[in-house]
Specification:
Layout lengths: L8 E2 L11 E5 H7 L11 E3 L2 E8 L2 E5 L2 E5 L3 E5 L4 E3 L7 E7 L1 H5 L7 H4 L11 E3 L5 H16 L6 H23 L9 H14 L6 H7 L4 H12 L3 H19 L4 H7 L5 H12 L3 H7 L1
Parallel strand pairs: 1-3
Antiparallel strand pairs: 2-9, 3-8, 4-7, 4-9, 5-6, 5-8, 7-10
Helix pairs in contact: 4-5, 7-8, 10-11
């Protein structure tokens, strides 16, 4: 019974036998014609690639990491690798879904570490929805439709390069809009150090939740690390670490058939009782009750 409630992990699936890791799916295709059979996209699932959801018409909610985010015409939703999300069934919506891997972008002749430079998929730092204005929408719609036309046409030696280029232009333009939307907010002098802290958390979150561990790894004091997170996230480092760990615990509870004891050990707790207390204090329910809800 527990296995049936697990949130499935989804690897990139080349649904149209393309030679590259990119898929272009219309709302109608997703809902009616060619929905994936391996999992239910309208139930929570964890993706192991990147997704971009572009809304040309309609409104509704999209669910990411157990939160709902409203969207409307002109919304772009960025779903990062390893996030849990779910679609809302909506036949009135005119939207397109782009699925791709980091390797797909890096393999182009203009190869770069673009994904590391973008804030668009940094879901710890920014909300996943970017809202375009009426004036901004046409160029994004043109790029999306250009990628769709190229994807659905017979492949040649330039197909992958053209799609990669259009996707890079779209991501860079979205990044510019996001940064301009925050232009009135001064850039933190701790931005680079905070990004280094995030990288360490991505690597070691399940090993340690101690502030001093990360301060030592960054060769700074715990006091300075608290100053950095307070400046960027408006919360101390311990609270930020707790927030990330709770999200990961929820993912493990829903994405695996691991028992509570196994998840406790996996997330750094020697005593499962302490794990349950920690989770209940920060998530508002016991791990078992949380798992039952989904």
């Amino acid at each position: 019974m527990e296995d049936q409630k697990n949130i499935p992990g989804v690897n990139f699936q080349n649904r149209h036998q393309k030679a590259f890791e990119f898929s272009f799916v219309s709302n109608w295709e997703w809902l009616i014609d060619n929905a994936p059979s391996e999992y239910d996209p309208f139930r929570p699932h964890r993706i192991h690639f990147y997704a971009l959801f572009y809304v040309m018409k309609g409104e509704g909610l999209h669910y990411i990491d157990f939160k709902s985010y409203p969207y409307k015409k002109g919304s772009i939703i960025f779903i990062s690798k390893d996030q849990v999300h779910a679609f809302q069934k909506n036949l009135e919506r005119d939207a397109f879904l782009l699925l791709f891997t980091e390797q797909f972008l890096e393999r182009s002749s203009m190869a770069s570490n673009l994904m590391q430079q973008l804030s668009l998929y940094n879901y710890h730092l920014y909300p996943p929805v970017l809202q375009l204005t009426e004036k901004q929408m046409p160029i994004f719609s043109q790029l999306i439709l250009r990628m769709g036309d190229e994807y659905n046409a017979p492949d040649d030696q330039l197909t992958e390069e053209i799609i990669q280029s259009a996707l890079k232009i779209l991501l860079c333009m979205a990044e510019r809009i996001r940064k301009s939307n925050r232009a009135d907010q001064p850039q933190s002098k701790y931005q680079e150090e905070f990004l280094q802290f995030q990288k360490l958390l991505n690597l070691h979150l399940l090993e340690s939740r101690q502030v001093q561990y990360y301060a030592d790894a960054l060769s700074i004091s715990s006091k300075k690390l608290n100053r950095i997170t307070q400046d960027i996230m408006n919360q101390p480092a311990k609270a930020y670490i707790n927030d990330l760990l709770i999200i990961e615990m929820k993912r493990l509870l829903m994405n695996t058939s691991l028992g509570i004891k196994e998840i406790a050990y996996k997330t750094g707790f020697d005593d499962p009782t302490n794990f349950v207390k920690y989770f209940k204090k920060l998530a508002g329910s016991t791990p078992v009750n949380f798992r039952r809800k989904f």
